[in-house]
């Protein structure tokens, strides 16, 4: 008679792998074991070594006891894919740190053109649910905590048997109903969640806002925004088996924090502000807020250089329409200007890209119309420079007064009123009283490129088309 096990789920397969490393995209499987449980009865037990096609690192050999010689004549993964899929068919994929084992099987099958479509359950997370009073939930901690023993630790079937033995102990200590209830809750919440995550996914509201991923330290790993935060956070976890950056983040993540907003605009503004203030480790965009520069064109056609690179930090927002382009470095600004110069036959010497007097080299080879050599009127040259720069010109604030954008979320009943003036985000308030206070203090933030780009499309059109957008202090349609 087959050995009884807890009927944790109607049908589940406990799986464990040994691999050549920890990266499912780069490393390969060396051993796999699976035990299928149906209605609390073991109905299938299967294991095999797997030839990974690469050398096994000495550290991995010493950890698992699996050597190159042992896998030399073992089947390749493509040869054991079918029996693996058969034992998993129609069952929940259960493993201790399931995203590791599931990630490797998913990647290996995907390389063969097969999809792995199974629900997953992580017994690390189940242990956290069942035994919250304990800190450690790895297999070694579970062995010590419950007095279990094994002679085959870090071998696939040995670790599967440890998980099954632990489930039996948990059933005896807590009862089958408790195991089934917590397993069902985890299954609904998606077992793709990292096992070390301390934040319950169900606690994250599925509303607009900004979410922050934290590891052990105080600096966020990553900051993101979404109109559906819970769904977006889950999508990070589901993408981690395919994207290296997501995998690095989710190996380090310990908790998630969030801040709600009424809508998408508020989430975009808050994300940009928090990324600049907190400098998260894995955000590539939105981080730079200082050191931006733009080109200023002289009114005097005879001025040399005709263009001057100025820092945006020192500019008043109401003078932005005199500037062209926004650049994060002097090199980026110079490269952009050099391209314009070549495309429009402008004089690099007059623009300050080259030094010297008299005819520039571009003029001598016919790529400059000769303002440097007296062949072109300086006023005409300046006009051509202005025309070449026209599409890069920063826009003037198109409104007579500050503008407010009201966002309301009926689900959360939250209202955010965002106040802007001269392309700057002045404040975000939540009712008319706070709005009046914001207008009185009128504390303006410095120019921010990301805010400017966000508002150009939203607020550059005439008002009156969107009832949620209105002028301040008087409401003018």
Could you describe the 3D structure shown?
The protein has four domains: 11-189, 2-Layer Sandwich (Nucleotidyltransferase, domain 5); 201-278, GIY-YIG endonuclease, CATH 3.40.1440.10; 293-392, no CATH class; 403-471, no CATH class. 36% of the residues lie in helices and 19% in strands. It has 16 helices and 15 strands. The strands form four sheets. Strands 3-2-1-4-5 form a five-stranded mixed β-sheet, with helices on both faces. It has a four-stranded antiparallel β-sheet with strand order 14-13-12-15, sandwiched between helices. A three-stranded antiparallel β-sheet has the order 7-6-8. Helix 6 packs across helix 7 and helix 7 crosses helix 8 (176-189). The longest helix is centred in the middle third of the chain and has 19 residues, at 156-174.
Key attributes of the depicted protein:
single chain, 477 residues, alpha+beta, Nucleotidyltransferase, domain 5, GIY-YIG endonuclease
